[in-house]
Write a structure and sequence with these properties.
The protein has about 400 residues and is α+β, with helices and mostly antiparallel strands. It is about 30% helix and about 25% strand. The chain contains ten helices and 19 strands.
């Protein structure tokens, strides 16, 4: 893709707006392909990435009516081992994956009925999961609670620490990060996006601009572009981080429903704990996540925190002894159909990598590969990406005056 000339200095081939895990994954892959990159974000990783638990659970995340999203998730989850290995090699930072899989558990009979409907959906879609006895589930994970109605295993699920992966990406892109907020997009006379102005007034010229922003920033930047529609809304969630001692050495992601309420418990490896008195045998455990159609007010209501702990301890009672060290409320950018917007937007020079909702960490490698393919003229990396075409929400072409609709 040709790079335009710029009066404000050497332009970049790509300006990525947004420094969360999706934006930095796009920038890192673009740089690896030989493109020059600039990333604009006043506080990289402090949005949805900060709250994410890091479940790479393509099968467990599958839900009714979301077959296209399941295909995207499966394709991206398969890329995570190589993505993590390459990132570790590039930075010298270990980016370990939890490979023990997930245990899906049901608290009561109604929860078990729902779990079985989900397992039937997996079979219909060709996804690998299997119901097991509660006794078998406890053999796999001895820390499960005494009152469970049923369980299933998903062997292929992975998990990663998003904060650790993001820190590695920040290191890999240290020379490309500009800690300023994007204020507006600049177009040339032909309507092509050719630069981004930041909140200090600096102009960042580019051959292409990639939006990898949250809901609020996306709407602000696209204000005044009548030929572009990106219906991304904020969906607020809260995650809790606990510091668990050697008495709670969880090895699996535990996901479940407690009287219809979803909850998950995600362990990190030994030595990941943080908090007063933590040591080499301590580990971080992430509990989540609430989901509310609310703005990103960064408030964690006491009732929501209580509800998460109540339901998590019903599945894993040992968390009672863990220290609560972090409460992180954030809004995830979601679209009306829960599919992300990835690739060309229909506005020349503007690409999207937004709207990933609850799957931003999981979809980061596939999104990055898709955007870089678009930038370099390569074919899309997976046919499932057709469902994520940003142009599906493009404004309808106006009808000629007097025409009937």
């Amino acid at each position: 893709m040709p790079t335009p000339s710029s009066p404000s200095g050497t332009p970049s081939d790509v300006v990525v707006v947004g420094g969360g895990i999706v934006g930095l994954a796009v920038a890192w892959r673009a740089a690896a392909s030989g493109l020059s990159v600039t990333v604009l974000d006043p506080s990289p990783g402090e949005g949805a990435t900060r709250a994410a638990a890091g479940m790479l659970a393509a099968v467990s995340e599958s839900d009714f009516g979301e077959r296209e999203l399941a295909r995207l998730n499966v394709a991206s989850a398969a890329r995570w081992p190589d993505f993590a290995a390459r990132l570790a090699a590039a930075t010298g930072r270990d980016v370990p994956l939890l490979r023990a899989g997930s245990l899906a558990v049901a608290y009561d009979a109604d929860d078990l009925a729902l779990l079985r409907r989900v397992l039937a959906l997996h079979r219909e879609w060709g996804l690998a999961s299997a119901e097991v006895s509660v006794a078998d589930a406890r053999r796999r994970e001895p820390y499960l609670g005494p009152r469970l109605a049923g369980a299933a295993v998903v062997e292929g699920d992975l998990a990663v620490d998003p904060r650790r992966a993001h820190a590695a990406l920040v290191q890999a892109l240290a020379g490309s990060l500009v800690h300023r907020a994007a204020a507006r997009l600049e177009r040339d006379g032909a309507g092509r996006v050719v630069a981004v102005r930041d909140d200090a007034g600096a102009r960042h010229a580019a051959g292409a601009v990639v939006l990898a922003t949250g809901a609020g920033a996306t709407a602000s930047l696209l204000d005044g572009l009548p030929d572009m529609r990106v219906p991304v809304r904020p969906v607020k969630g809260v995650t809790l981080r606990l510091d668990a001692g050697p008495g709670l050495a969880l090895e699996h992601v535990v996901r479940g429903t407690v009287q219809g309420r979803p909850v998950y418990v995600v362990p990190r490896g030994a030595g990941s704990g943080a908090g007063p008195g933590s040591g080499p045998s301590h580990r971080e455990i992430v509990v989540g996540a609430t989901s509310e159609e609310r703005p990103d007010d960064r408030r964690a209501e006491a009732g929501g925190v209580f509800a998460l702990l109540r339901d998590a301890r019903a599945l894993v009672p040992g968390i009672d002894e863990a220290a609560l060290v972090d409460v992180t409320p954030r809004a995830r950018p979601a679209t009306p159909d829960n599919l992300p917007l990835v690739g060309a937007t229909g506005v020349p020079g503007l690409l999207a990598a937004v709207g990933h909702g609850r799957n931003g960490v999981l979809l980061a490698p596939l999104t990055a590969d898709a955007v870089v393919a678009e930038l370099t003229g390569a074919p899309p990396p997976d046919p499932a990406l057709s469902a994520a075409d940003p142009r599906r929400f493009a404004p309808a072409d106006p009808l000629p005056e007097g025409a009937a609709r």
